[in-house]
Amino acid sequence: MSDAPAVAAALERFRNPASRAAPAFGLDHIRRALARLGDPQDSAPTAIHITGTNGKGSTGAFIRAMAEASGLSAHVFTSPHLVAANERIRIAGRLASDDELAATLIHIAENTEGLTYFEALTAAAFVLFARYPADISIIEVGAGGATDATNVMSRPAATVITPISRDHEIMFGVSGVAAIARLKAGIFRRRVPAVLAEQPPSALDALREEASAIGAPLHSAHQHWKAAWRDGAFVFGGKHVQVRAPWLALPGAHQSENAGAACAAVEMLQDPRFTPETMAAGLREAHWPARLQKLSDGPLTRNQTSEIFIDAAHNPAGAAALAAAIRVARRPGDRVAVIIAMQGAKDAEGMLAELASPDKGVADDIIACELPDSGGQEGGPGAAPAHLAAIARTLGAHALEAQDYLDALKLAQASGAARIYVCGSLYLCGALLSANGERVE
């Protein structure tokens, strides 16, 4: 990772990777800290709070793009970052500068205590969002919902729950989709509209119960709004808004779910500056890195005859979406290699079942490598490449082990792969972007 020295030094005051100490989930520390900082979370502009298992970042990217196409400015908080921590905090369209982020983190360190790395960055986002004017704020949870450090806003304008699947169960001590849904429903607020993307039946039942208990009006996919591909175009139909975009800027058929949730959230704002035309323009222009992103010309790609794509898929549902995209893009005769590294606590079996099984028609070679150092980010230790490769082999795949991603790229090219897909962790994707000289702007 390549944080600027001043930012890295400021973040070191909060460095608490899970490999050293397990994170303590809860809102006590962050609430006390924000109170000492003047409760900036309640002074930030109109907020849309987003949780879910997959698609949070893409949904937020669509909302931001629609806002900017409509002439609005947007603050955005996301996590984790790919190359530099500044990526997490976008202030009215620009990334937080090194100097202001470092100064804000130092101010927080000097006026609070007991914050973790993620809590400190969350507090910094709220401080900066309260300081600078914008029309809306887009806040993505780090993980979960009820106990996430972002869940401190007293009254966001809307909440969004993207598709829920199994993930982070060990981290939160829950099991099953319904339990995960109840955890994520913790961002609901009384009389604040809650947008639900398409959900598994058990998750939808749980979300309905939680919304009813707290008094949050639901706006659910299929029931209150619809999003689909029609004649090759994306079409959204809400109660008052109809949007048609000839394409979506983010690749993959699954992005219709995220674009639909984004449109539904924007509809909840009832802001006349959003029009069907500006919303369609935003959907065509959104950008969100490491989502089926092809690496551009750089130190890594210049030595490769293969095309290299990075994707943030890190759980079975994400892997299924990636697998579908690979099958669609695959040309006759192409050899495809998938390079994977992931955290040890993730569902490696479920993810590899989508990518490695020969009957899925996805990968000719699975190449497992070590998870790169996350540079102080949250997250536990990586799964051993030998473990991942062994799982892939039990599924019938041809699997190799690599020392690191550079070794994995060499093995993939030696295999004759025309396309190489890299997945399993945003940390891995970020390492490749950094090595290829690419930044997120």
Q: Can you give a write-up of this model?
A:
It contains 15 helices and 17 strands. The protein has 441 residues and is α/β, with parallel strands linked by helices. The chain has 2 domains: 5-285, Mur-like, catalytic domain (UDP-N-acetylmuramoyl-L-alanine:D-glutamate ligase), CATH 3.40.1190; 293-435, Mur ligase, C-terminal domain (Protein-Tyrosine Phosphatase, Chain A), CATH 3.90.190. Strand 10 and strand 11 form a beta hairpin. Helix 3 (56-69) crosses helix 9 (255-269), helix 3 (56-69) crosses helix 10 and helix 7 runs parallel beside helix 8 (201-214). The chain is globular and about 55 Å long.
The tally of helices reads 15
Adjacency order of strands in the biggest sheet: 4-3-2-5-1-6-7-8
CATH topology of the largest domain: UDP-N-acetylmuramoyl-L-alanine:D-glutamate ligase
CATH H-tier superfamily of the largest domain: Mur-like, catalytic domain
CATH architecture classification of the largest domain: 3-Layer(aba) Sandwich
Please state the average pLDDT score: 93
Helix coverage percent: 25-40%
Could you write a compact summary of the structure shown?
Helix content is 37%, strand content 15%. By secondary structure, the protein is α/β, with parallel strands linked by helices. Strand 9 and strand 10 (233-237) form a beta hairpin.
List keywords for this structure.
441 residues; alpha/beta; UDP-N-acetylmuramoyl-L-alanine:D-glutamate ligase; Protein-Tyrosine Phosphatase, Chain A; 2 domains; 6-stranded mixed beta sheet
